[in-house]
Write a structure and sequence with these properties.
Helix content is 78%, strand content 0%. It has helices at 13-128, 131-201, 212-215, 219-222, 241-260, 271-274. Belongs to the FLX family.
């Protein structure tokens, strides 16, 4: 199996034999190697086939494992959700227990309040039986109040009417006093003229003089109830024009007395009483 070599001398036989043995040995080795190679190739093919089977099995196992892992993960998520729901339910359960306790306490308080209200209701029912009497008293008080208001209004109107009447009487009294003063002045003048006329007609006769108070008493100034007996007073002035003039003044006084008589003959003669408000008796 040596390569080409240039022509040389033939090797010795011993060398050829050794070389032949070496070739035979190499051929045997080659056969063994070929057999081993075929065996290895078969083993490699078997191993490759086994590897493929193992790869398929591994792939299948991995898929199954991934599926199991996924399923376990989904189960874990589901369990986690259930755990959270359970925790929420536990929290709600705790809250419900607290609410039940509060409701129990409220029930106890409401029961006590109900008893109190029941007692008050019984008392109110007992008081309600007295409502007609109370209503009757209220109606009676309202009637009395209305009567009192009517009396107050009547008193106000009466007082106003009395005040107006007193003012009118005061004005009339002032007017009468003024007229009386004028009459006194006229009487004084008439008396003076009468004395002068009497002295002129009878120079030797002494004229009888009468004081003015005897003609018009002071009480007649304050007396509002003239009775008309003023004519009964004897005024002996004698004959002459004075008696006619005096009768005219006396008639004027009687007319004024008649006008005052409209306010009543029983009016007090005291000036202080004339200023007091007159209250009518109902």
């Amino acid at each position: 199996m040596a390569g080409r070599q240039p022509h040389s001398r033939a090797p010795p036989p011993s060398h050829m034999t050794a070389h032949h043995r070496e070739i035979q040995g190499l051929l045997l080795d080659q056969k063994e190697m070929s057999a081993m190679h075929a065996t290895l190739k078969q083993e490699l093919a078997a191993a490759d086939q086994e590897l493929r089977k193992l790869s398929a099995a591994a792939r299948k196992f991995r898929e199954e494992r991934e599926s199991q892992i996924k399923e376990l993960y989904e189960k874990s998520l589901k369990l986690e959700t259930e755990v959270r729901a359970i925790e929420a339910l536990n929290s709600e359960h705790t809250q419900v227990i607290g609410d039940i306790q509060k409701l129990t306490e409220s029930k106890i308080q409401l029961t006590a309040q109900f008893k109190v209200l029941d007692t008050e209701l019984s008392r109110v029912k007992m008081d309600a039986s007295q409502v007609p009497e109370i209503q009757a008293d209220v109606d009676k008080m309202e009637q009395e109040l209305q009567k009192g208001r009517a009396a107050v209004e009547y008193e106000k109107k009466t007082r106003a009417a009395n005040l107006e009447l007193n003012e009118a009487m005061d004005r009339k009294m002032n007017s009468l006093q003024h007229d009386i003063e004028m009459l006194r002045a006229e009487l004084a003048n008439a008396e003076k003229r009468a004395r002068e006329a009497a002295a002129a007609s009878n120079p030797g006769m002494q004229f009888l003089t009468f004081p003015l108070k005897s003609v018009l008493p002071v009480q007649s100034v304050h007396n509002l109830g003239y009775t008309g007996n003023y004519e009964s007073r004897s005024m002996a002035y004698g004959r002459g024009p004075y008696s006619v003039q005096y009768s005219m003044h006396q008639g004027q006084l009687m007319a004024d007395s008649a006008s005052l008589a409209l306010y009543g003959r029983s009016v007090s003669h005291d000036p202080f009483d004339a200023q007091q408000p007159h209250v009518r008796k109902g």
